[in-house]
Design brief:
About 60% of the residues lie in helices and about 5% in strands. It is α/β, with parallel strands linked by helices.
Amino acid sequence: MYDIVNKAKQAEQQAILYALQSVVNRLVPQDMSWRDLFQKAEPDAQARRSILEHALEREQKRKVAGGTTTGVHLSAHFETSYATFTLHLLKIIDLLQHAKEVKHILFEIRAAAATPAYQFLKREEAHPAVCLLHTLCLASYIDVELLAAYSMIGEAIYEATGEKETLYKTLIASMPAAVHAGLIQNDASFSYIKSYSRYLLGALKSRRIGSFLKLLGLGEYDPRGELANNAGMLFEEEITPSHAHEKIVVRTIYTPSPTIGDAVSPEARCFLQALENRHFLSPDVLKNDPYPFSCWFYVNLQNITSKHEGKRSRALMQLNCEYPFSFYGITVSQDSSFYRGGIVSKDVKKFTKALVAEEPLNTHYRQAMLDELCAEDNFTTANRGYYFPGSSTTWKSAFQAIVDDAFHVAIAVSRPEGMIEARWNWQQKAAFRELVAIGIMRYAQLQVAKRGSIVTTYACKESIDRGGKINACMLWALAKEPTKVEKQVFHVLHARALLGRFRLILAMRAQPLFALMNTLKQETVHAFLQRRAA
């Protein structure tokens, strides 16, 4: 089975390299080399002064802290920095001819983005060096189609699973079937430590011990770079917002947390800068834009109050202020004791302990859910696990509508014959919680989509457990024809964990999805999400 995982990983790498090479081919000049183009495009002294004044004026308008100091510093070192900037880009072009691993190209992208010359020119989208760097970053998130590689793994597990009566039953049965086929269930085992110590070390860096490992010189937590947890496109839909007549594209992209350590990664900032710049370009320039997206809607699933996820989460949510036109992020933590509903262990056998004193879903529980969402702390980054930007008044009215609707949908379902009452109580409440969570995500997404076509991300640290589950859930729930995406849901749930960490999704993280699927019909959940546009 791991031979298939390795083949899928190679296919994923090739898909990324092909997408990036296509960018170079599309932008390649017809009558000169890239080196000559970069040299010709280097501004003279007068042009640099003009660009500097323009950049400082725009920085002041956007209230970018330290703009003047940064600009003066960049101006003083521009000549040597520009040569370094373009050298990294030329190395990327060369690497694309023979590279087998994407991470080497990613490291060059990061090095190019770190140069003062790029920081000086980053708002000049017409500059060939800036255009190339930005387009490479856009392509790495948006152009790479991941489902082809995912399907190689998903099909293998699907064939190894005997139960295929319904998607829910197949997903449940696939977990033990995958273990029986030789796949590792979690990283807390001797066989995993022995075979995948590099991936285990990377995962440890994401936790509290990461600060200690950094002091030992073992580096910061870098899921996309060191762990090769790659980004790309999962699925997209066309929707018509209630205020408009033209359809817009909502493309869901996969990525682990776009951070290195506790800071936003350079390639994520380049991606956002490219989107931000598009808000200042003329309609004629944008007419044939291959990336007609106005905003990155980002759902952070990490725990914003924890010591090892909090700093990353706050850095991501701060992007709402740093890129006001092109980023809109919310945090919907999946680690609060309320959300977990008593499941606090990776051992799925301990799930039964959460059922002992479980009470039925009732109006008191509905109010507890609403209180959890409407706490005043949730509208600042110093909160209890959630973060929602903007007016608390607007959000609270939306929460009321979502919670009430989810409650009526969930409470209308009767306990199946043969299911013990305690287990049904937990499952019905878990389905209610999950319905509220995805309802909030969909509501916010559709509000952002009023700006035009957008890209969407649902991500935790590595997006293989919380993120893997939510991506699979949204693919299932949003499908107009669910039978056509059932296998894709299967692939999305399983493949990312194996590609990113060579292990299966943690069983406790999948429980809310299973509860939702086993409690409510897909068309019921789909209709619930569609009502969020009202």
